[in-house]
Protein 1
Amino acid sequence: MNLRMKGILLMVASLLLAGTLAGCGSNEAPPSETGKPAASTDAKLDPVTLKIMFPGDPPANWSEVKGEMENRLAGSLNVKLNIVFIPWADVLQKRQVALSSAEDYDLIWDNNPVQNIAAGLYEPLDELIEKYGPEIQSNRSPQLLEANKVNGKLYAVPLEVNFIRPWTFVIRKDIREKLGIAPIKSYDDLIKFMYTVKEKVPEVTPFIPNGTEHVGVRLASMLDPKANLAPVLNYPGLYTKGNDGKVYNIFDDMDPMLMENFEQNHKFYKDGILAKDALLLKNGEFTKGKAAVSTFFDFGVNLGTRTGLEKSVPGATAEAFSLYDPGMKLSSTYKAGNYIAVPVVSKNKERAIQFVNWLNQKENYDLLAYGIKGKNWEEAGEDLYNPIQENPYAGIPFAWGWNPKLDRIDASLPEDVIKLNKWQRDPSHFTTDILSGFTFDPSLVSNEVAQLSNAGKEFYDPIVLGLVEPKEGLAKLKEITYENVKKIQTEYQKQLDAFLASKK
C-alpha cells in the first residue's frame, strides 16, 4: 500500500472516528449472545428502513421471501427493506453515481471496492462488526477476513463460499445424447462435441462463453495448472505465474499456454464454433437455448440456469464439465469476489451491520438463499438442500450474505460436482498465495488504467475471443498499450515488493 493511499485512509478514518464519537448517544442496543440486539433499556428499537443496492433482477418468488424476512425482522431488529435491483449492465455506473452523489443507501453490493475505499466512500467496519457482528466473524475463516482487509482494516464484509474462483463449462446434455456422444471427460472431448454440433445441429451456436472471463488466462491456467497463471485484476495483458511474487506482461513474457489458447480460439472463430458476435454475447444465451456450450462461475449447473433453459426449450437439459480436480494442489489469495459495504453517508450504520449479522444466522440465511422451507426447498442434510422443482427460488446470497459455513449445496447435483464444491470450500485444501492480503492502489496510475481499460475492450477482447489473428492483434495492441501496460506493471510490482518486504 503506498503512502498516498495510507494518508487518504488515515484521514477518512479520523473523520469517521469523530463522527462515531459524536454519535455515541445512539439508542442501538448491544448484541446478545445470539447476535441479535439485546433488549434496550428503553424500549423496542425504533423502526428503520434499510435501503440496499443489489445487482441483477429480483428472483422469482422474491416478494414472498421478502415478506417473510420482514415478518421475522419485525420481531427482532424492527427493520423494513427497500431493495433496489439494478440490471447487471448498469450496476457499475449507477453504483458510482449513487456513491458520488451521497444517495441514502445503507448497504451496497460491490465486486471490487478498493477504489471506493480509497475515495473514502465506505465505512470502516471493524468496530461495528466487533460489537454487532459475531456471526459475521464466526462464519468466515481468519484467512478470508484477513485477506480482504485494506491497510489493516475491513471496509466491506467479504461474501464468498469459494477459496478459488471456480468456473465450469455447461453443456446441452440433451443435444449430446441425441448425437450419441459419450459424456465429456476431457477438453479434447469438449472440442469434438462442439464441432459435431456445428455439423449436425446448425441452428445452435456450438460455443458462447461468458465474454472473455474464462477463455483467456483462466482457461490457460486450467490447461496447465502447475503454471499457476492468474490475471492481474482486469488489466489486459498483465498476469502472474508460479506464485513467485512477480508481475508479467504478454508482450515481454508471453506464456506459451496463453498463446496457444489465443490461437485455438481464433480457429474456433474461423470455423464457426464461436459466435460471430461473441463480443456482445454472454452465458445468458445458453439459458435461452441458443448455445450448446457456455461457461459459468459455478461447479455444476446452477438452479437458475437449469430452470431458465427448461423454460426456454421444453425438454432441454444441461450438465457440467469441469477442468478442476480435488487432487490439484492450488494456491489461493482468499480474496472474495463479492462484498457488502456500508456507505459513509448511511444514517443507519449500526442497524445495517446488525441486519447483515442477522443474515448470517442459519435459519435466516436459509431463507435468503433458498426461499421458504417446504415451499421452495427441502432439507437434504446438514450442508445440502433439494430445491422444489415446481416452485424454485434462485436466491442471491452472493450479494448480501454468502459464507462457506452456512451455504448449502444442491443435493440434486451429481456426486462429483458436490465433491468439488465441498473441496473448494475448505481453506485447508489450498496453499496461501503470495498475493494473499495484498491490495493494489491504482491511484498513481489512474490515467494509464483508464486508457488500458478502454483499449482492452477495443483491441484485447477480440484477441481473447479469437476474432482476430493473435500475432497481428497483439502487435496492434502493443503499439497502443505497451507504455501504459509497463507503467501499471512497474507500479504494481513496486507496491507488491513493498508488501512482501513488510511481511518479512
Protein 2
Amino acid sequence: MRGLDVDAVVVGGGAAGLSLARHVTAEPGPAPTVAVVEPPSGPVSSPPRTWCFWEHGDGELEEFVHRSWGRLLVRGTDGRVVTGDGWDGVRYKMIRSADFLPAVTAELAADRRVHLVTATVTGVHDGPDGARVTGVDAAGRAVALRGRWVFDSRPPRRLPPARTTLFQHFRGWFVRTATDRFDPGVAELMDFRTPQPPGGLSFVYVLPLGPRDALVEYTEFGPAPLDDAGYREALEHYTRRVRPLGPHTVTGTEQGVIPMTDGHFPRRLGDSVLALGAAGGATRPATGYTFAAIQRQAAAVAAALRAGRTPVPPRPHARRHLAMDAAWLRALAAGRIDGAAFFTRLFARNPPRRVLDFLDGTSGPVGDVALGLRCPVGPMARSLAELPFLPRRTAPLPHPRPLRKASR
C-alpha cells in the first residue's frame, strides 16, 4: 500500500480542487503540503467543459481566458434588445477546462509542496485529528493518504432536501458558418425567442468565437432534462428559423445539467472532512453560475490553511441572496412569474452592472433592495412568505447522458 501524509488532501482535480491547491501555493516560502487525487483517464474522469463568468478588467486568471466579450445582449421574446451598453468595463469571460486544468496541473507538479496522485478514491475516513483517503491506482494497487484536512470536491452524489428543485440543462453546438454571422465583440447572454416551458424558462446563449464560429447553446430551466431529439429540435429551430445561420457545420457539442435548488449543501462533512465547490454550495441557485464562487471559496480556504485556522469553506452566497433565489425558484416553479419576462424586465429596468453584481453574488444590500423593487413584487413576496411552511423533499439527480458535459 502506497501511503502519504500531508496537511491537506484534495479529492478531485477539477476546477475546485486545483484552484484550492493553486491558492495554497500561490505565495513562495513555507506553506501547507497538499495532495491532489484525480482518477485516471476513463469513465470516471471529468469530460472537457467550459466555464464562464464576468469580471471588471483583468483578473488573476487572465492567462487562461480563451475568449472575452465587452458587450452583452439580452433579447426579449419579441427579439427586442433590452440592454447593450453601459457595462462599465465588465467583461464576460470563457475559460476552457482543456486549457486550465493541464496548465495548473503542470504548475503544481513543479511545486515540491504539492503531490499529484492518480487514483480512484474508494473511501474517505474521518477522524478528529485528521482523515484518511483510500483508493486504487491505474495498476490496481492500493493507495492511502492521510491529511489533517480532506477537501472533497467531487460532484454531489445526491441533492439535499429542498422546497424547490429545478434543473438547468443545456446542450450547445460549436458551429462554423459559411459566411460572417457573428460579432466577436458581443456575447448574447439570453435570447428568449424560444418556446417557453410551463413552470420554467428557456433561452439560447450565443458566444461568438470569431465572425464565423460560435457556441450556440440551448438552455432550459425545468424539472428534468430533454432527450436527444428534444435538444436537437430546439437547436435546429433556433439556427434555422429564429436566427438563420445559413449553411453551417457543427464542429463540437457540449452538454450539462446543473441543479438549481434551495437545499442546504453542508460544507462540513465531519471533524476533518470538508466539501468544496459545487458539493459545498458554490453553485448559485437562481443562475447555475459556479466558477467565480469557487475561486472566492478556494482563496478563503487557502488563507485559513496558511494561517493555521480551521479551514471550513465560507458560505459562497449571502443569506439574503439565497432567500431571494429561493423565492424566485418557488415563483417560477409555481407559475406565478413568467421567467423570460422576469429576466427581460430585470435587465431593462436596472443598470446592467447592478444586475451582474447581483447575479455574481457581489452586490450590497442597497443595490439588492433597488433591484428587488423593480421585480414583480407581489408574486415574489407571496413566494417568500410561504417558504417557511413548505416541506423539504429530496429530488433525484438525472442520469448523465453520453455527451460532453459543461459547467458555467
Protein 3
Amino acid sequence: MPNIKPFKAILPPQNKAADVVIGLENLTISSAKVIGALNPSSFVHLLVPKIENYYLRGSKQEIAFKKIAENFDDFIQNGTLVRDRTESIYIYAKTYKGKTKTGIWAVSNIEDYLSNNIKRHELTRIEREKGLVEYLQQTGLDANPVLITYAKNDDLDQIIEKEKLKPADLDFFITDEQHQIWKVCDSDIVLEIQSIFAQMPATYIADGHHRAAAACSFGQQRRVLNPKHQGTEEYNYFSSVYISADQLEILPFHRFLKLNHLFDHIEILEFLKANFEIKEIDKRDIIPKKEHLVGFYYQQKAYQVNLNSFLNKNILHDLDVSLLQELILKPLFNVEDPREDEKLYFLGGKIDIELHLQMIDSGKFDLAFFLYPTSVNDLIQIANLGGTMPPKSTWFEPKFLAGLVTHEID
C-alpha cells in the first residue's frame, strides 16, 4: 500500500563522507559551533551556519538561512556534496559491534501519511513542526529521514541481500561504526521493490513523527502555491528509511527527577512500599530484564518495583511507561503532563549506568526510574488501533547521520 519512490539524492563522495556526515543526537548549538570551526566540510554548516557579518539586512534567522544557501552552493561546487544524476532507491547498512541493520532508503508520498497507510503512534507539537517546516521552506533540504518499519518480508530481504553482494557505493567508518550505501537504479529491481511495498497492508512510523508531519505540512502548502501542481514534484515526498520490524531495536527512555523543597523525601519510599511489591537489589541490576518490573534508584540504593498486579489487559494501560506515569509519577510527584513538567528529565538509548547513578549520588538528580523497552509488537498494535503512545515511550535504533543521503525538495 505505501507508495515509495526513487530519487536523485545528494551524497558525499567516498573520500569525504566521514568528514561530512554528522549525528544529530545530543547535538547542541555550542557543540555544533565547535564542530563547524574545526571541520569546514561538516554538514553542520547546513544546520548551524557561522554568521560572520551580523550587519547584513534581515533577522538573525533570515541571515542564517541565507548563509546555509551559500554554504550549500559551495559544497556542491567544491565536491563536498554531489548530486546523483540517476534516480535510485538506496540500500543502507549500519554495522556496530558485529551487528548489522539494513534498510531501504527512499522517499514516501505524503498522501500515504495523510491516508494513514503510514501509521503513527505519537502526537506532534505544533511549535516543533513549525521550526522543521521553516527549515524545509528556506533550505529545500530534507536531510533527516523518517524511520519506518514493516512486517518482515522474505522477498524484500532477498533483493536486499542480493544487492549487498555488489561493491558498496559508499563504505566508511566513524569510530567503531561502519556505514554503507548501495545505489539501486536498475528499473526492473526498483519496480519490484515498489511492488512489494505497494502490497503491504501498512507501514509504521517508528521515529520521526515531527519530521513526517512537517514534510506533509510543507507539501500541502506548496500544492496550494503551485498553480501547475501535478503531484509528482519532490515536495510531495519525504526522505524515509524502511527497516524490517525484526531488525528494529527499541531502547527505553528512563525517568530522572529533580525535586524541589516541597517534597517530603521520607514519604517517597513509604508510598512505594505501601502500594507496590518492592525489594532492594544490587545497583548493577537496576535495568529491568523483563517488562512490568521497574528499577528505582534513590538515596544510593537500588530497588525493583513490580507492576504486574496492576495489569488489566488493555495494551495502552499496560505499557510500563503508562503504569509508571499513572501509578507513581502522577500521584506521588504531581507529574500531570510529562512533556511539560520541569521536575522530569528523560534519558534514552544506550546509557552509562554507573555515570548516571553518580549523577543522582552527586545531587544533580534526586532519583530515577529505569524501564524495560516497549516492544515493536506493542507499537504496531497501538498504531493499528489508532492509539497514541505516551510521551518518551521509545528510543529507536538505528539513528541516522545528517548529510549521508539528502533529499532535495525544491
Protein 4
Amino acid sequence: MSTPSTAAAETAVRNPWLAVTAVGLATFSVVTTEMLPVGLLTPIADTLDTSTGTAGLMISLPALLAALFAPLVVIASGGMDRRRILCGLLGLLVIANIATALAPSMGWMLAARILVGFCMGGIWAIAGGLASRLVPGHAIGLATSIIFGGVAAASVLGVPLGALIGDFAGWRLAFGSMALLSGLVLAVHLAVIPSLPVASSATVRQFDEQLRNRKLQVGLILTLLLVAGHFMVFTFVRPLLLSVSGFDAQWIGALLFAYGIAGIAGNFLAGIGAARRTALNLTAIALGLLLTPVLFLTVGDSHIGGGVVLLAWGLAYGGVSVGLMTWMMKAAPGAVEIATALYVGVFNIGIALGSWAGGKVVDGLGLTANLWLAGGFAAVALLLTFGIGLAEHRTDATGRRAGSTTG
C-alpha cells in the first residue's frame, strides 16, 4: 500500500495550507480543461463541421480514458515521489491545451483530448488522497473540501470565463489561455509542494481486495449514477439554456458563472456535513439532482425558471465530489490512494457514459427525453442513499439499545 514516509510527513507540515491550495489549483486546472468544451460546444462543432452530439465526444472520450489511466498511474508510479508525478502531469496538461487550441479537425481535437484524459486520471488519482498527507487529522475534512473546491471553482471561473473568452475572441484563444494558466500552476507546484515519497507502491492485488469492499462498492455505484445522470444534461447545458429557457448566447457565460458560485457553496456545505452524516448528505444531493431535470421540464421554459433551476442544480452538484470522496475515505481508511483511483475511474466512466448517452438521446430524441433519462438515474441513486441512511439509522438505534441494556 502507498504510505508516506516520515520525512515526507515532516516536510508537508511546514506550509500545509499553501500546499493544499496548490493541489486545489491543480484540480481546478485539469477540470477546467476537461469541462471547457461544455461552454464552447456549439462554436467548436460549427468550426470543425460536426454535429452537437459528436462534439460531445470531447467530454466523453477523455473521461473514459481517465477512468483507465487513474489506477494505471497509481500502479505504474511505484515508489516515485508524488510531487514529481503531479508536476509532470501538469506539464503534459500545458501541451494538451496548446494542441487543442491548434486543432484543425475533429480527429486532431480528439487526439489532444486523449492526452487530457491521461492528465485527468493521473492528477485526480494522486491529488484526491493528499489531504491526509498535508494537514493534521482534524483538518482533513477542510483540506479535502479545498482540494475538491478546485472542481467547483472550475465551474465558477474556468468554464464561464472560457465561454466568455470564446464568445468574444474565439474558442481557440480560450484553450490557449488555459495552457498559460496550467503553466502558472505548474510553477506554483514546483515552488510550494513538498517532497511526497511513498514507502511502497500499490499492487493489482490490493486493487482487487478493495473492489470486494462492500461499502466501497456502494460508493462506486452511487458515483456512477449521480455523475452519469448529471453529465447527460450538463454536457448540453448550452443548447438547453438556448432552446428550452430561451436565453440569448451572450448570457451563457454569466449563467454558468452563477451556476459555479452555487457549486462552490454546495462543495463547502457538503464538506462540512459529509464527515458526520455522510449518507444523509448524499441523500440530499441525490434529491437535488432528481429535482433538477423535473424542474427544467416543468418551469424551465422561461428565463426566470431556467435561471433558478440552474442555481439549484449548481448547489446540488457542487457537493458531489467531496461528498462521495468522504464516503470513499471512510470505506477504505487504510487504502486511500487506491480508493481514490477507483473513485476517479468510476467518476470518469460516469462522465463518459453520461456525455455519450446524452449525445445519442439529444441527436435522436431531443433535449426533453434526455432530461427524463437523467432524472431516472438520479431517482435510483436517491433510493439507494435512502436505503443506506435507513440501515445506518437502524444500526445506530440497535447500538443505543444494547448500550442502554448493558448499562
